[in-house]
Structures are given as structure tokens and as C-alpha cells.
């Protein structure tokens, strides 16, 4: 069974690993929730630094 993938370059959906624009297609689904989130601190630090660069914080 194939799953739908989303191109990281052009944001189009496809069933193949590589999009027509030669971009890599990845799963559009978010990571599975876990109350023992091992990498939550890292994700929040990255997101905060991106917001600071954009001037949102």
C-alpha cells in the first residue's frame, strides 16, 4: 500500500519518492505524539530562533 507524500520543494502531493520537479517527497503527517517527548526542547529552541530571525518575537 502506497502512502501520499508531499514534495519539500514545490509543496505538491505525490505517491512517488521523487517529485516531477526533482524535489524529495516526504510524509506530510506530523510525528506521533508521546508524553515522553525526547526532542521537544530541541524543536522548541529551533522554532524560537526561527521566530526571532523573522522578527515575530
Low-confidence stretches: none
Helical content class: 25-40%
> What is the rounded Rg?
15 Å
What is the residue-averaged pLDDT? 88
Category from helices, strands and their pairing: alpha+beta
Q: How do the SSEs run, as a string of H and E?
A: EEEH
DSSP, total strands: 3
- Strand order, main sheet: write it out: 2-1-3
Give the biggest sheet. Answer: 3 strands, antiparallel
- Work out the helix count: 1
Question: Regarding quaternary structure, how should these chains be classified?
Answer: single chain
Query: Shape from CA axes?
Result: flat
Distance between the termini: 43 Å
Percent of sequence in beta strands: 5-15%
Condensed summary:
The chain has 57 residues and is an alpha+beta fold.
What does this structure look like?
By secondary structure, the chain is of the alpha+beta class. It has a domain at 1-27. Helix content is 26%, strand content 12%. It has one helix and three strands; from the N terminus they run E-E-E-H. Strands 2-1-3 form a three-stranded antiparallel sheet, with no helix packed on it. It starts with a strand and ends with a helix. The model has no long low-confidence stretch (mean pLDDT 88).
